[in-house]
Amino acid sequence: MNRGLSFAIAALQALIIIATVVGLVVAPLTLAWFLEGTGDVEWILALRVAVYAFLLACAVPIGFADGEIIGIGFESFSLTALPLGLTGLIIVMAIRIGHRLSAASSLWPAWIGGAAAFGGISYGASLLVADSAVIVGTWEPLYYPAIFFGFLLMVSSVAGKRYELFEGANGEEARERVWIRNLFTTAFSKLHWSIRTALNPGVRVGLSVVASLVLVSSLLIALALGFGWIQVIGLYQGLGLSILGGVIVTIGQLAILPNLIVYGASWISGAGFSIGTGSYVSPFASELGPLPALPVLAALPTGGFDRGLIFVLVPVVAAILATFFVAKHADQLRWEYGTRVSGALSISIVAAITAAVTVYVISLAASGSLGPGRFETVGADPLMFAGVVFLEVLIPSFAAALVIARPYSDASERK
To answer: What is the pLDDT of residues 119-166, one digit of tens each?
Structure first.
């Protein structure tokens, strides 16, 4: 694959991703527009909703002036929380493309072509649906998506095993892959031995705890939606929406469902979350004001000490189990460290930092403004969430690591 071909393929794939994401939103809206058939709403509204949802998924803030849409009035507000459903879809597709491009003999043309096409098409789409009531910034629709997609393309094309259509199909490996891999190898080798030996097992433990939080949160929300379907249907009926309005609300809920999973993970950890300024929900206390009539919000936990406290043990137990499971990856700790305490402390600190940084990033993306008024503050507090998870991983992981990081005492143990 030469430079020109890799440039063209990346640009084409960028177009396909944008068309796919926008199409997933605009297709059901178009169908609802045809079925409703009153003529009160122009079709361009469906395209605007799809494009603005795509831009928000690429971290472009969307501002709205005072107005009314599908019969619902609202005050001026901004949307800053990413709809992680759409963002996750873009990430998955971009990673797949980047992995396939790893077979190319030169990668930088693909990076430039993909980023330029993604940013350019996003900017063009924002101009196409421009509306005086919606503010997306002058250049944000250009460089935010370009940086977002370009970064994903670069990382996925240099990380992991090189893509190979069939055995022997690949030629010389791209210099960019070799250079970046050597750069990281050199940087890793220059780390202090105390960090280098604890990095692999510690990162595994930290990510395992975050995965456990997300998994349990997903199960709780799924069960809440399943058992509370009558309440969900009642909320839909109470909204009194038209067909188009109902489709828009449903698509919006699907897009933010992963955000709610992040809020649930924060609740499980004990850090809690808020649905509007002045509100707070955690296993220990609950202070909720009026909630928007979104049916999916019926799935969120609402606090309560008796039923909520037990969930705080989830990250603690996950940290203990994950630490024991990575024992085979922590064998070098037994050679390098002279005491149990120093070895256990090293792996637990790395695990706690990994988990804290991960939840900070995902809660930062999932939280922000989701509507007008008091709903400009929605989601988990990233710093609080990260701080709580840090402690919940550090202490139990340290206790468990005291066992697996025990230094070798004699030659027979080293066999």
So the answer is: 999 999 999 988 888 888 889 999 999 999 999 999 999 987 877 765
Do 258 and 88 contact (CB within 8 A), yes or no? yes
CA 206 to chain centre: 16
Specify whether the CB–CB gap between 64 and 133 falls below 8 A.
yes
Q: Report how far residue 354's alpha carbon sits from residue 261's, in angstroms, rounded to the nearest whole number.
A: 20
pLDDT in tens, 340-389: 777 788 889 999 999 999 999 999 999 988 777 777 888 899 999 999 99
Q: 297 is written with which tokens?
A: 């919000």
pTM of the model: 0.87
What the block records as the tokens of 220 is 């709780």
